[in-house]
Amino acid sequence: MKHQKGLTMVSTLLLVLGAIVILRAFMVIIPSYFDHAEVGVILDSLDENNRINAKTSTKVMREEVARRLRDNNVAFSVDTLEVQRSSAGAVINWNYESRKHFLANIDMVLTFQRQKELSK
What we know:
Elements: H1 9-44, H2 58-71, E1 81-86, E2 89-103, E3 106-119
Antiparallel strand pairs: 1-2, 2-3
């Protein structure tokens, strides 16, 4: 026992398995965060071309966001996009989730929230 050095075969296999699971998790999670960043860009640029403003209907806002998501190959549903109107303008609140396949019958669910203020 005093001369034993290194890991056993079982320990090595467990470390490799752990590394594979962690690598797979990163491969699932990181693209979702890139899509979340793209959603931020889409919402931030909504009022740039003056097509969308605080008086625009919720339906038109959803259609425009859905079109831009499709154009950028981002697959999020706009059903949970909410518009709250006030005398100062409108606030778009969007809580959405990204569900990705992880391993076997295990999925990862990431929840995100974005908000955009549109002034009059």
